[in-house]
Amino acid sequence: MSPFQVKDLPYAKNAVEGISEKEMEIHHDKLYVGYVNKRNEIEEALKTTDKSKAHHNYSEFRALKLEETFNADGQILHELYFQTMGPNAGVTKPSEALMKKIEESFGSLENYLEDLKAVALAARGWAVSAYEPTDGKIHNFLADFHSHGGVWGAIPILTVDVYEHAFFMDYGSDKKSYLEAWAKVINWDEVSKNFDKVTK
Ligand SMILES: [Fe+2]
């Protein structure tokens, strides 16, 4: 079985006011499903690609990893999009807790929606409203394509800096040796702590 499954629409294709059945059908059944299928195809290809040829200018592995992110984000953003709209136009409202956070972040629901729509107007791909744990507020982020700006919803537990400033002084252009050295100094206690936080 493929690792990633298509999520059915949680309502009929003609149920959302303002969005036609035809539009919903193409968007969900063709475009969204295409991201899930391609992500599965890439997962399969990654099992046999030659990692010893990994290179930042070009390698098959790099191309697959780039498109993995693109298609994963295409899947995730669309699922959230379809999930967070529905047939009950004007009936639902933010919970007490969400409203409190929106007011804390934007002053009012009206300001929040004004900002979200402005971001959407300024974006070439997505406006993404997200809870940002750094300041504990809600932010509306702009993404010009799915994989611009990160994997939405993923909380990082470990990073490695591969900008040249991180290794050039010590290793010259020998990025591989830098990564070998770096792997030996990972603080797994800290990584484990981060992982615990994410999964609790
Ligand atoms: Fe889309």
Automatic annotation (TrEMBL):
InterPro entries: Fe/Mn_Superoxide_Dismutase, Mn/Fe_SOD, Mn/Fe_SOD_C, Mn/Fe_SOD_N, Mn/Fe_SOD_N_sf, SOD_C_sf. Keywords: Metal-binding, Oxidoreductase. Residues 4-85 form the Manganese/iron superoxide dismutase N-terminal domain. GO terms for molecular function: metal ion binding; superoxide dismutase activity. Transmembrane segments: none annotated. The keyword Metal-binding applies. Pfam families: Sod_Fe_C, Sod_Fe_N. Its EC number is 1.15.1.1. Residues 94-194 form the Manganese/iron superoxide dismutase C-terminal domain. It is an enzyme of class 1 (oxidoreductase). The keyword Signal does not apply. Mn(2+) binds at residues 27, 78, 161, 165. It catalyses: 2 superoxide + 2 H(+) = H2O2 + O2. Belongs to the iron/manganese superoxide dismutase family. Destroys radicals which are normally produced within the cells and which are toxic to biological systems. This is Superoxide dismutase. It comes from Candidatus Woykebacteria bacterium RIFCSPHIGHO2_02_FULL_43_16b.
